[in-house]
Amino acid sequence: MKIRQHPRMQGIQVGDEVYSHLHKIVARVAELFPAAVCVKIATLSVEEPMALTLTPQLWPADDIENLSVCRYCGRREQIRTLNEAGIPFQVCRLCTPPTGEESATGA
Ligand SMILES: [Zn+2]
Asked: How far, in Å, is the centroid of ligand 1 from the Cα of 77?
């Protein structure tokens, strides 16, 4: 059986920052799978002695937003973070809507 890659997985690389709509947190990609990414979540133990451990988690491609590329065209250059209803995402200069604060400067 052929494993089909999820379309959203195409632009993701190891080391990219991804946002999970499910967990509402941002994490760095440690491993890539055809339809999911493996991230390492730092968890703080509440028991004594307190310890910070990295717990691997699988995030399905449907639940994540890649914060290292432009959301619309997938570019990695000249991107900046926008916030929409509290969910961060990246937009490059070319895909930024012209009605932003930048057009007001006239530059
Ligand atoms: Zn773009």
From this structure: 9
